[in-house]
Backbone:
């Protein structure tokens, strides 16, 4: 196995599937099945999931809502998605724990680093909800922060595109894919992978980022096993 402990970052929008909003049960099951496959291999897995399928703080702020309140709503959306994913995983027999950066002890543990690491060591999937617990920070930043805190070897960013391209492949058919990039190359080329805060945090802590297509069944296992070159790896 190529990795032993990873942080998987999933977008909230991806949970919509073919819907315009909300959570697609089919997509949820697809993701849970892929996650079970790698947990069954003995992988230690933490997950951060966005909330854009329910509410995006920056979008609410752009429409006149107070930014701090809007971001708090976005954080709660990530908890809703986390609970949905937790339910899907447990229905497949995967042991999980949900931790939240915002205390809500009736439905999730508070984020405690040592407890999270212990859960991982015991083979439980740990879902981190509530972002960083602070407004003005994205779930990309939350994913990077949690990955560093739990000593993950890599951030796997599951998207609907099979890596990083010279341009948006959904808009530009001539776009070509990169297999490997350095952090400096990403800066120089102006490629949009994560927000700058998250990306800089990864670079400063030598934490690689692998961008891959999570919507293809089996891809997560292939990435973890490292037997095929899938996605784009960013590292120094």
Residues:
């Amino acid at each position: 196995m190529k990795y032993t402990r990873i942080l998987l970052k999933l977008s909230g929008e991806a949970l919509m599937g073919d819907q315009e909003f909300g959570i697609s049960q089919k997509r949820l099951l697809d993701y849970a099945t892929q996650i079970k496959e790698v947990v069954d291999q003995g992988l230690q897995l933490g997950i951060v999931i966005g909330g854009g399928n329910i509410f995006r703080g920056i979008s609410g702020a752009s429409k006149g809502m107070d930014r701090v309140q809007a971001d708090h709503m976005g954080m709660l959306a990530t908890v809703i998605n986390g609970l949905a994913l937790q339910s899907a995983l447990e229905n497949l027999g995967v042991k999980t724990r949900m931790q939240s950066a915002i205390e809500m002890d009736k439905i999730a543990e508070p984020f405690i680093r040592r407890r999270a690491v212990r859960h991982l060591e015991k083979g439980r999937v740990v879902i981190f909800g509530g972002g960083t617990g602070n407004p003005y920070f994205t779930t990309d930043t939350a994913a990077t922060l949690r990955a560093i805190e739990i000593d993950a070897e890599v951030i796997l960013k599951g998207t609907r595109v099979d890596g990083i391209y010279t341009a948006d492949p959904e808009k530009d058919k001539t776009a070509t894919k990169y297999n490997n990039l350095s952090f400096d190359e990403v800066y120089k080329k102006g490629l949009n992978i994560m927000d700058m805060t998250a990306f800089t945090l990864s670079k400063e802590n030598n934490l690689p980022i692998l961008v891959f297509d999570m919507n293809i069944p089996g891809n997560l296992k292939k990435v973890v096993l490292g037997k095929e070159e899938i996605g784009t790896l960013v590292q120094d």
About this structure: The chain has a mean pLDDT of 94. The chain has one domain: 5-234. DSSP finds eight helices and eleven strands in the chain. Residues 113 and 149 are 7 Å apart (CA to CA).
